[in-house]
Amino acid sequence: MSDAEVAEVITVMRDLVPDVSAEAVAAIEERLPEMVRPHDPRYAHMLGKSVRWMIAQFVDLIEDDEVSLEPITEFFHEFGVWTAEEGLSPEAWHAAFRLGSGITIGRLAEAVQDQPGVTPAMIGQVAQKVSVYLDRMAAAMAAGHEDADARTAGDQLMRRQKLIEVLVSSSPNADEIWDLALQARWKLPQTAAAVALRRRDPGGERRAEIPANALAALHLSEPCLIVPDPDGPGQREALAAGLGDWIAAIGPTTGTNDLARSLSWARRALALAEEGFVPCEVPVIAADHIPLMQAVRDRDMTEHLVALRLAPLMTVRAQHRRRLAETLLICLECGFNASDVAKRLYLHAQTVRYRLRQLEELFGEPLQDPAHHLELNIALRYWLAVDPAP
Q1: H/E element holding 356?
Q2: d(Cα 30, Cα 113) in Å, to the nearest integer?
Q3: Structural contact between residues 264 and 244, judged by C-beta atoms closer than 8 angstroms
Q4: How does DSSP classify residue 229?
Q5: pLDDT score of 40
Q6: Which of 106, 120, 203, 273 has a C-alpha 20 to 30 A away from that of 150?
Q7: Do the bridges between strand 192-199 and strand 224-228 make them parallel or antiparallel, or are there none, so unpaired?
Q8: Calpha distance 95→101 (Å, rounded)
Q9: Parallel, antiparallel, or unpaired: how do β-strands 215-217 and 224-228 relate?
Q10: Distance CA 326, CA 384 (A)
Q11: CA dist., res. 123 & res. 12, Å (int)
């Protein structure tokens, strides 16, 4: 083509920019309603501006291959940020790009195909250039969307970390909790529980697989979680599955204004697990170990209680001492019902009755005195926890 013929084609294309832009915008608004919000004129303005500028800039690029695309790529990067902040999905504006590009290629090709010197091969080259050009704009927009998502995620993480700090504080403010939960996009539950955590291997790199609705504060020196509706179906199983590399202890279920207490219990139960008092292969339920937590809290007093109440047991040979202690603890829990004790220990009832007679010979009348049962229960739990099993 001669320079004059090229200039004529460019003029025809440039004259078409307003009409092609309007047709593309109308098609996008008709077929992609999520891109249109009649109550908010910003959407129509941004859509019209982006389409008009994209087509006009492409015509400039056809005229001069060296024209700078930096201004328009920056625009579409910011346009991507804007769409992310407005909640428009990448799928929506990808569809808009495809629709707009199809209309643009079709209309420009129709307009220039009868121009002197224009061949089908040239129209194909223009279509290919349109495709490459739009891919570049889409990439700029995607980068902006990702940047906005990253910023949003970072902001939300900080808000959630602030929220969890307020929730476990000694005197949480209800209004502040509501405001922070709204900002962090966390639905306030009716009930929740705190979970205290410690890595099994301090050098481990595997991240905890935390339920999506939980709040995580793994950044604290004493990491913890807040788990909504902890007694709901499958909640504890899911938590156990995701925390395999962590020692975890679950505090009691409370309202969101009492999570400091739940966390306090959880941390005390976690200490039991770390010191080997209770198994830690699965999350420890703090409420299951109240007597032991109390006993460990003042060991000097508890050890005095052990020496006082379990003295008869210490006269038995070591190989029999532990099984008698275990039998006595279950007896106390089952009200000395031999059948119930047998089921708990997987023993024959006659074996349990035989052990009971041995215990009665050792302890005498105090064994049947309810006034001594609480002290015996605490002493037995503590001794069984600290005394290594043979």
Answers
A1: helix 349-363
A2: 28
A3: no
A4: S
A5: 67
A6: 203
A7: antiparallel
A8: 10
A9: antiparallel
A10: 8
A11: 14
H or E stretch covering 226:
strand 224-228
Rounded to 5 degrees, φ, ψ at 243 are -115, 30
For residue 362, the model assigns a pLDDT of: 92
CB distance 361 to 275 below 8 Å: no
pLDDT score for 231: 86
Are the CB atoms for 104 and 133 separated by under 8 Å? no
SS (H, E, C) 245-308: CEEEEECCCECCCCHHHHHHHHHHHHHHHHCCCCCCCCCEEHHHHHHHHHHHHCHHHHHHHHHH
Please state, in angstroms and as integers, the Cα–Cα distance from residue 27 to each residue in 36, 175, 329, following that order: 11, 47, 78
Across the chain, which has 390 residues, the per-10-residue mean pLDDT values are 66 80 83 70 76 79 77 81 73 77 76 69 72 79 74 70 88 85 85 92 65 82 90 81 85 94 95 89 90 88 92 90 93 90 91 92 86 89 81
In the prediction, which pLDDT does 249 show?
94
Q: For residues 91 and 98, what is the distance between their CA atoms, to the nearest angstrom?
A: 11
Q: Are 103 and 24 in contact (CB under 8 A)?
A: yes
Say if CB 257 and CB 263 are below 8 A apart. no
Cα distance from N-terminal residue to C-terminal residue, the chain: 97
Whose structure tokens read 């001594």? 372
Reading the block at residue 87, the tokens are 């909640």
Helix (H) or strand (E) holding 11: helix 3-31
Q: How far is CA 273 from CA 88, 260, 263, 279, in A?
A: 47, 20, 15, 6
Beta bridge partners of 284: 249
3-state SS assignment for residue 225: strand
Q: What's the confidence (pLDDT) of residue 211?
A: 79
Look at residue 234 in the predicted model and tell me its pLDDT. Answer: 80
- Give pLDDT, residue 95: 81
Q: Give exposure, 315-337, as e/b (b: 16+ Cβ within 10 Å).
A: ebeeeebbebbbbbbbbbebebe
Q: Please give the Cα distance from 316 to 375 (Å, whole number).
A: 20
Do the beta carbons of residue 278 and residue 292 sit within 8 Å? yes
